[in-house]
Amino acid sequence: MRLSRYFMPILKENPKEAEIVSHRLMLRAGMIRQQSQGIYSWLPLGKRVLDKVNNIIREEQNRAGAIELSMPTLQSAELWQESGRYDAYGKEMLRIKDRQDRPMLYGPTNEEMVTDIFRSYVKSYKSLPLNLYHIQLKFRDEIRPRFGTMRSREFMMKDAYSFDLTREGAEHSYKKMFTAYLRTFDRLGLRAIPMRADTGPIGGDLSHEFIILADTGESEVYSHKDFVDFDIPAVDTDFDDVADLDAIFKKWTSVYAATSEMHDEAAFNAIPESDRLSARGIEVGHIFYFGTKYSEPMGAKVQGPDGKEHPVHMGSYGIGPTRLVPAIIEASHDENGIIWPDSVAPFDAIVINMKAGDAACDAACETIYAALSNAGKDVLYDDTDDRAGTKFATADLIGIPLQIIAGPRAVANGEVEVKDRKTGARETMTIEAAINKLLG
User: Fold this and answer.
1) At what angle do helices 21-28 and 321-331 cross, to 10 degrees?
2) Which residue from 49, 43, 47, 51 is spatially nearest to 9, judged by alpha carbons?
3) I want to staple 156 with a disulfide (CB 3.0 to 4.6 A). Which of 54, 79, 92, 322 is the partner?
């Protein structure tokens, strides 16, 4: 992608409305634009990052055996009346009526709808276990949306829903998602701590929030420091191995970790003082087991091996991609801008032409750009006629992992400079070596 033809509206000044680092940097880097209170457009640079986050989430959901579908954003109020949640949910739910005066709502979550889909088609325990998920925009009319897409009214959610014949089976499905979440956040460059959490309006008696530590976190969290060193489940984890997943779950819940709502001061104080961790945290995922809360009132039953009908045991599992993007920035930035992990960077590298219009610089940059693009790399080519300081500031602000800098003096010697955005390390090498470095 040539920067001269790309839509990336960089802001030179810090926006006054931005209270936290991620919101400020996302606005300055031209990733998002606020359309109304708590509602944002994702501009091209931001969407590239969001898409990569979604792809990683999708890969790990699929690896754990979940199956993707797509459900509508507008839902019939009748389904929520069946479950008993329509009147109980609160003002966060946007209630509307269609032209036939039928009550509708803009879905804040999808337990009722997915239960309706399930009950319409699944009749036997032989079709279980089943886990259905989608990645979709949702709406919750927050009383105080703030911090950009960290807490917005319209947001993207990956929500998965598991169905099992028994509680034992449902707990195994819960542990599948628990393990998949550990892998997902690690691939996004984050260390997420699973913490016992309140189930809230979703319901149930088993719930964990996945929290990353950040000074701008919305709530106080408490945990044992051992979490920092726990190994992430391997890529070849067998999600059907009950004993293996049970061992992973027991390890990651073996030491104290809780949100402020579930905090036990006595249990926390029993931890040696040097091993206590009290900090602010950002919730990036939340999982629930709620048994038959929805299946019983909505008649979602299957025939068991005994020939009788049984209400299925369910769980739901959420990750907020539009919250994850700023969370990654909160965890990875410096005074110059964003530092993207390789896995979600909008581009793999940026080629900076220090003297656009100079034949030698143009030729060197075109060679690098073509070689990397043809090899499947995502490359941004700064071919603008901006000053050197502006080009460097832009490259640092948008946080692309590697910068390939082509100036007249270096190019005359057949060389370019390669800068690592994260470490700041610079290395002069031949054009061929720079290409090989990125392809390696």
Assistant:
1) 100
2) 43
3) 322
